[in-house]
Write the structure tokens for this entry.
Amino acid sequence: MRKPPVKRVKRAAHTRPAKEQPSPETRPCSKKSGKGDTQVPAKPTNGAAAKAETEIRRIILGNYSIAAWYASPYPDEYKQSQELHICQRCLKYMRHRQSLESHCCSDPFPRGRRVYEDASSTLYEVDGKTHTLYCQNLCLLSKLFLDQKTIYYDIGGFLFYILLSKQQPTMAPAGGAYLEGAVEYTFVGYFSKEKSSVERNNLACILVLPPFRGQSYGQLLIELSYELTKIEGTTGGPEQPLSSQGFHSYRSYWRRAVVQALLGISPQAEGYLLHS
């Protein structure tokens, strides 16, 4: 008996097995460090909603309660309460208010070398190599408000410039009177830069906490980054690419700087820098 002809079926192009791609949850992400780039696997999640429930939502810093904008890689056990109490002197983070109240901080405050001071604010230079834990805590804190910031754990190659506001203490000491020259400092923001930048960047990261935005502190930090560069006898600019907020801040700064230069007006911060 004659066998029926066998029909040949042409294989469709899409039936060919494709090379498997990692899912967004498991795709490695780049993490910068002071010694180069390393690949760190992204932490798996169970969905955006579940992740949001295990992230810090608010911090208590001094007299301010500040809502967090973005996630920061604090240890998991500190995310359970979704609220952190932070010491202004050392930036140590605690889960409970009682822990902060019993936290007898003996760290120097302000710390570092004072490089600028006017009637209402002062700036201190803090070496990441000397004050490692403080600067690491500062990076974790700033990540709550900066979307594009990369966390640096090897920060010995960076300098941090801490901006503090000054005011008379709101509470008198035990004697019932203010001490002469007594000043109460409040952490406002900071900028950082590499000690030795191949690209001559004079600013790597900049932050002004939300309660102090709109008060020209950001403009002051940018101006100081350039004034310090002038003292060093070099030229430079911010690390690229700029964030959206950074772009608008720098554009506003340069508009004012160009107008002042055309009018022959010296930068305001220049007269308050402390030369070592």
Notes: Confidence is low (pLDDT under 50) at residues 9-51, 172-180.
